[in-house]
Amino acid sequence: MVKKINHIGVAVTSIAEALPFYRDQLGMVYEGSEEVADQQVRVAFLAVGESRIELLEPTSETSPVARFLAKSGPGMHHIAYEVDDIVAYLEQLRGAGVRLIDEQPRRGAHNTRIAFIHPKSSGGVLTEICQAGDSGAEATH
């Protein structure tokens, strides 16, 4: 079962250029940045209540975020829902005929486990399922 909206991913060409709007104009709390090398992305985390906005900057021209930016420009990239047991949740989705991008969870930022649902199964919205890591950190992409 989905516990909450964990975060909304926003694709940007530059975290340094985008961050001041979210932090200074909107007043969100900047929680730091992290690079997720296997996803070729740098992520900046901004708290909004119990959820986050994640600014996603590609670190390679071939990354999925770079391809998104080339096709669509900056903007909302995905929405992430937090679950307690990602493996069981993926099995449930698969059993319901939901098209998955990730058949098995993979590593996300903050030592989380993540998997993506194909937009064709979720009304055109790239959807992430995430589970908090062993450290107890909130799940983020």
Automatic annotation (TrEMBL):
GO molecular function, a single term: metal ion binding
Domain VOC: 4-132
Record has Transmembrane helix as a keyword: no
Pfam family, one: Glyoxalase_4
Annotated signal peptide: none
Keywords tagged on the record: Metal-binding
Highest taxon, organism lineage: Bacteria
GO biological process, one term: L-methylmalonyl-CoA metabolic process
Xref: SUPFAM superfamilies: Glyoxalase/Bleomycin resistance protein/Dihydroxybiphenyl dioxygenase
InterPro entries xrefs: Glyas_Bleomycin-R_OHBP_Dase (IPR029068), MeMalonyl-CoA_epimerase (IPR017515), MMCE/EMCE_epimerase (IPR051785), VOC_core (IPR037523)
PANTHER family (UniProt xref): METHYLMALONYL-COA EPIMERASE, METHYLMALONYL-COA EPIMERASE, MITOCHONDRIAL
Protein name per Swiss-Prot or TrEMBL: Methylmalonyl-CoA epimerase
Organism: Desulfuromonas thiophila
